[in-house]
Amino acid sequence: MIMNEKYTKILELSKNFNPDVIYWDRVRLEPFENSLRSYPAKWIRKTHEFLRILEAKTIVEIGSTRIETTQKCIDYYNKSFDIKECEAPPCCQDGHSTHFWAKEGYDVYTVDIDPHCKTQLENQYKYHLNEDLPSNLHICIPQCGIEFLKNFNKQIDFLYLDGWDVGSHLYAEKHLEAFITARPKLSPLHLISVDDTDFIEPVGGKDKLLTPYLLQNGYTKIVGGRQSIFINHE
Question: Facing residues of 139 across strands?
């Protein structure tokens, strides 16, 4: 399939994805409000559908899984298009993206500054899933995401940005900087996804600066909500 055909097919596939989303205008949510947030599973599953069309091979994830994935998490993920978030384990608010990127067979580079994320990943395979660490999962922890991208020497098909927490110092600027750093290494046709984009002004999500920059620089936003997904069309 040539590049233009892949682009068109991904655009068509995105049209049938319109989950309900509540948007938030503040960072500090009450516990009951946090449970009302859209869980990432639907967005991660839809991203896999796009990546299969793209025939993606290499994923770089900035911001790794923070909470161990269990079989209950996998069961919820597999049903997430059909059931309500209230039926999900609370830990699935994290998304467990690292596990699901690796499970699909991509060459995954997951990067985080927090060494605890490495412990969580290792424990989930050893104690919860009774599996060896996948050979296609490269745990680059602890490392700064931007420094990692500066030194990365492979072509990136999918850049997943889920680093600096909303409300932390320069969080929006850091996500924009991460994309700009990665840009020379992105495939001719690629996807960008940003987590925690269900925040609006005055706070704004992790994409607060990145979304307008992408739209001004040859990208189409194909999915919004809890996560925002973009495809280039240069």
Answer: 110
Q: How is residue 160 written in tokens?
A: 């997943």
Task: Name the strand (E) or helix (H) holding 12.
Answer: helix 3-14
The greatest distance separating any two alpha carbons of the chain, rounded to the nearest whole angstrom, comes to 48
Laid out side by side, the sheet with 107-111 consists of 137-140, 107-111, 58-62, 156-161, 186-195, 227-232, 219-223
**In 66-170, which residue ranges form alpha helices assigned H by DSSP?**
71-79, 97-103, 115-123, 145-151
Which among 109, 101, 115 has a CA at the least distance from the CA of 47? 101
- The DSSP call for residue 27 is S
Judge whether 206 and 197 are in contact, CB under 8 Å. yes
185/105 Cα distance (integer angstroms): 21
Q: What is the pLDDT of residues 51-93, one digit of tens each?
A: 999 999 999 999 999 999 999 999 999 999 998 887 889 999 9
**Cα–Cα distance, 73 to 125 (Å, whole number):** 13
Is the model's pTM score more than 0.85? yes
Q: Which helix (H) or strand (E) holds 220?
A: strand 219-223
Phi, psi torsion values for 138, nearest 5 degrees: -110, 110
Distances (CA, A) of 53 to 8, 12, 84, 101: 10, 11, 27, 15
| 139 Cβ contact list (under 8 Å, min separation 6) | 64, 110, 118, 121, 122, 133
* Number of domains observed in the structure of the chain: 1
Residue 133's domain spans which residues? 3-232
CATH code of residue 187: 3.40.50.150
